[in-house]
Fold:
Amino acid sequence: MKDFNRRNFLATSGAMATGLLMNSGTAAWSQSDNPDGSPYPEGFRDVHGRLIVIDGINPLLVGTFKPEHIDWWIQGGCTATSVTVGGGNLEDDATTKVVSWFAQQIETRPELMLIRSAEDVRTAKREDKFGIFYNFQGPSSLGIELDRVWYYKQ
Structure:
C-alpha cells in the first residue's frame, strides 16, 4: 500500500467526487426525485438548519465592504465566518479599515455578533445570529507596534 499522505488523500477524494458527479442518477445530489426540483436531497434544509456552519474563506466579504454580501452568507445558512484582517499583503490602514467596517456592521445590525470563543459560536447558532471572528495570516499587521495587539483583541 502506498503511503497515505495529503496528496494521495486529495487525489482519492477528487476521484470519488468525480465518480459521484458523473453518475448523477444515483448521486446523493440528484434532482430527479425531488418534487420541488431543488438541487438538494429531501430534508436537506432541515438538517442544514441544525448544523453549525463556519466559513473560513470569504474574500467577497472582505474585499467589497457591501452589507448585502453579509446577507448572502446569512441566507445560505452560515453560522459564522472568519474574516482575515491582517497579514499577507494588507497594509496597516487596510487592516484598520477591515476591522472598523466589520465592527460598525456588528454594532449596527442586531443579527450580527462578534465571535471571541467557541461558546460564542454556539450562542450565535442558538440566537439565530451570524457570527464574525477575525484572523491574521502572519504578524505583519502588528509592525513594530505591540500596542496593536490590544487594539485587535478588542
Notes: The chain has seven helices and four strands. Confidence is low (pLDDT under 50) at residues 15-32. The first strand starts at residue 54 and ends at 55. The two ends are 50 Å apart (CA to CA).
